[in-house]
Specification:
Residues 32-133 form the Thiamine pyrophosphate enzyme N-terminal TPP-binding domain. Mg(2+) binds at residues 493, 520. This is 3D-(3,5/4)-trihydroxycyclohexane-1,2-dione hydrolase. GO terms for molecular function: 3D-(3,5/4)-trihydroxycyclohexane-1,2-dione hydrolase activity; acetolactate synthase activity; flavin adenine dinucleotide binding; magnesium ion binding; thiamine pyrophosphate binding. InterPro entries: DHS-like_NAD/FAD-binding_dom, Myo_inos_IolD, THcHDO_hydrolase_firmi, THDP-binding, Thiamin_PyroP_enz_cen_dom, Thiamin_PyroP_enz_TPP-bd_dom, TPP-bd_CS, TPP_enz. This protein has 637 residues and is of the alpha/beta class. The chain has three domains: 4-209, Rossmann fold, CATH 3.40.50; 217-375, Rossmann fold, CATH 3.40.50; 386-593, Rossmann fold (3-Layer(aba) Sandwich). Helices cover 37% and strands 18% of the residues. The chain contains 25 helices and 23 strands. The strands form five sheets. A six-stranded parallel sheet has the order 5-4-6-7-9-8, sandwiched between helices. Strands 14-13-12-15-16-17 form a six-stranded parallel sheet, with helices on both faces. The chain has a six-stranded parallel sheet with strand order 19-18-20-21-23-22, sandwiched between helices. Helix 11 packs antiparallel against helix 15 (368-384). The chain is globular and about 75 Å long. The chain starts with a strand and ends in a 5-residue tail after the last helix. The structure holds thiamine diphosphate (TPP), the ligand O=C1C[C@@H](O)[C@H](O)[C@@H](O)C1=O and magnesium ion (MG). Magnesium ion binds next to helix 20.
């Protein structure tokens, strides 16, 4: 037996985190950058004491809301292409319950994050401790059990020595590209401070090798055959392309064999929008170009994608009678989808190996690509010039609000600014190497369709969970990952209201973030949805009890925190605010009042939703019938 070192469980945890390294493509780097904390009685005397005594290289950041700080950690890891993480330490009970939403976000997006919620007493001596839920059917159940369904790996440490096997398992999961996601290790609050004689070898430098999994010969042969048999193959670029850093291999293959690309939200900006074979976002929030190409395709090559309903228009985007699927994915589970020919391997290596094997091949898509792109560019140009008028105005979302209601909004919010016009002005004005982030509401759809990311990896959309509240907190993680870049949170008023506490954390640690707040006074996209499916406008607008549209001074809120703020209601004011915001050293917020119904509408796409089967409203009955028409042409699994 080697020598031993006596440490508390928490001291051992922090010492271990300092010794984790990741090794990818011959490059080795520390895996854990730091730790976010909100101290409560459950962690301040254990993990808090250990960090105060010796944090090692870990940066310690104080969060303001557990969900928010975990979202920041998730965005950081996503930006670091899953090769570096922050840990998150919370107290027990409500502090850990606040992690559930964030854990779901990390899980749905396959993003590694280490969650360290405190747990109730292992000895049970003081039970029920403060904030213990006291579940009647089992004393062993605590709030932290709620994290099980949203964790990739979950454990409870009830003795100091259990920490060793728990952490080793946890880091194996965190660094596995096929399974990475949230790892939750709950440590009983008494155990956090208890000591044990740990073997020194536990704290040796550990290198987690992420070797690229190669495709087998059989897989390559099957893939080549499928592509050669296809006349119109289309590559669906998922997030896996980014994580595999496969941009060069993908563009080379696409260019050489004339295979166009379409993107999921997670895959967008893996390849720059100016790449001539890039047809943009596909699916429910996709472009007309991408959705038309999908309908024409006879082979979909899905790379690193989960094929969510948004990406596939609820499995109606393709002609399933003739379209085949080839899936390249490190996850076997994902590769199995849509009865595809499976290549369970790393994207970059697979594309490298496919390239020479397709020699002599050329798809029939070649001449169609520039036509589709030109058609979409014209539509994008039109959307950049939408202007409101007080009579005869036809917003993008049609037949929902009368002109009278649109005028009422213009008066109440003091604006005539349409959302698409504002968004495209932003795209034109900010530097093209700055990074934007969004996650929920109508903006992700507009962004996937309209945002031109001219520089790779400058578009960060959390659309696996589409979690409101990720926007501001995630942008803090973005800035921590890219201290030298301008970063922009693109957020609706609803999402801003749900959670923006980490703006204060950003200010506290001099991490400049820019918040571009689109205030349309309501849950706009859901209001569109309910009205599109035959309902009235019901509880989605922000109206007072006496039916007045609310006009909230969000700029004043951020000003109160110390941010530099701007109030804008025209394109000119927006552009000058953006220019001035670039010059600031502190965080900024631009409070943009925009008109409802002026976001983009769908382009040849459909979404399967739970429409009411019984209703006296004709519109709802029609929507229900339409659903079954659409299901006739969809794949049923
Ligand atoms: C945490 C969470 N709760 C609820 C939802 C459902 N939801 C999706 S978008 C939305 C409204 C968003 O409103 P806002 O941020 O103002 O964006 P808008 O659609 O008006 O552009 C809601 C409630 C969600 N995505 N996330
Ligand atoms: O229900 C939803 C509808 C989507 O349009 C939106 O972007 C997303 O946030 C959501 O949750
Ligand atoms: Mg809104």
């Amino acid at each position: 037996m080697g020598s031993k070192i006596r440490l508390t469980t928490s001291q051992a945890l922090i010492k271990f985190l300092n010794q984790q390294y990741i090794h990818v493509d011959g490059r080795e780097s520390p895996f854990v950058e730091g730790i976010f904390t909100i101290f409560g009685h459950g962690n301040v005397l254990g993990i808090g004491q250990a960090l105060e005594q010796d944090p090692g290289h870990l940066k310690v950041l104080q969060g303001k809301n557990e969900q928010g700080m975990a979202h920041a950690a998730i965005a950081y890891s996503k930006e670091k292409l899953r090769k570096k993480i922050y840990a998150v330490s919370t107290s027990s009970g409500p502090g850990s319950a606040n992690l559930v939403t964030a854990a779901g976000t990390a899980l749905a997006n396959n993003i590694p994050v280490l969650l360290l919620p405190a747990d109730t007493y292992a000895t049970r001596q003081p039970d029920p401790v403060l904030q213990q839920i006291e579940q009647e059917y089992s004393i062993a159940v605590t709030t932290n059990d709620a994290l099980k369904p949203v964790s990739r790996y979950w454990d409870r440490v009830t003795r100091p020595e259990q920490l060793m096997s728990s952490l080793i398992r946890g880091f194996e999961v965190l660094t596995d590209p096929a399974r990475s996601g949230p790892v939750t290790i709950c440590i009983c609050q008494d155990v956090e401070g208890e000591a044990f004689d740990y073997e020194e070898s536990f704290f040796q430098k550990r290198i987690h090798y992420v070797d690229r999994k190669e495709p087998s010969e059989r897989e390559l042969e099957a893939a080549v055959q499928l592509i050669r048999e296809s006349r119109k193959p289309l590559i669906l670029v998922g997030g896996g392309v980014k994580y595999s850093e496969a941009r060069e291999e993908l563009t080379a293959l696409s260019e050489r064999y004339q295979i166009p690309l379409v993107e999921t939200q997670a895959g967008k900006s893996a390849v720059e929008s100016t790449f001539r074979n890039n047809l943009g976002g596909m699916g429910i929030t996709g472009t007309l170009a991408a959705n038309k190409a999908a309908r024409q395709a006879d082979l979909i090559i899905g790379i690193g994608t989960r094929y969510t309903d948004f990406a596939t228009s609820s499995k109606t985007a393709f002609d399933f009678d003739r379209t085949k699927f080839l899936n390249i994915n490190v996850s076997r589970m994902q590769a199995y989808k849509l009865d595809a020919v499976q290549v369970v391997a790393d994207a970059k290596v697979t594309l490298q190996q496919l390239y020479p094997l397709l020699e002599g091949y050329s798809s029939d898509f070649g001449p169609v690509i520039p036509e589709l792109r030109a058609e979409w560019d014209a539509e994008r140009e039109r959307l950049s010039r939408v202007e409101f008028s007080r009579s005869g105005f036809l917003p993008e979302i049609k037949n929902q609000f009368s002109q009278e209601t649109m005028n009422e909004y213009a008066d109440a919010l003091g604006t005539e600014l349409p959302q698409t016009t504002a968004l495209l002005a932003i795209n034109d004005t900010i530097e093209n190497d700055s990074i934007i982030l969004s996650s929920a509401g109508s903006l992700p759809g507009d962004l996937q369709r309209l945002w031109n990311a001219e520089v790779p990896n400058t578009y960060h959309l959390e659309y696996g969970y589409s979690c409101m509240g990720y926007e501001v907190s995630g942008t803090l993680g973005l800035k921590l990952a890219h201290p030298d870049k301008e970063v922009y949170s693109i957020v609706g008023d609803g999402s801003f209201l749900m959670l923006h506490s980490e703006l204060i954390t950003a200010m506290q640690y001099h991490q400049k973030i820019n918040i571009l707040l689109f205030d349309n006074s309501g849950f706009g996209c859901i209001n569109n949805l309910q009205m599109d499916y035959g309902s009235g406008s019901f509880f989605c607008e922000f109206r007072t009890a006496d039916n007045r549209i609310m006009n909230i001074d969000y700029a004043k809120v951020a000003e109160g925190y110390g941010a530099k703020v701007y109030r804008v209601n025209s394109v000119e004011a927006l552009k000058s605010a953006l220019e001035d915001a670039k010059l600031q050293e502190t965080s900024t917020l631009i409070d943009m009042k925009v008109l409802p119904k002026t976001m983009t509408d769908g382009y040849d796409s459909w979404w399967n939703l739970g429409v009411a089967e019984v209703s006296h409203k004709e519109g709802i009955q029609r929507a229900y019938e339409h659903k079954f028409e659409m299901l006739k042409r969809s794949k049923s699994y």
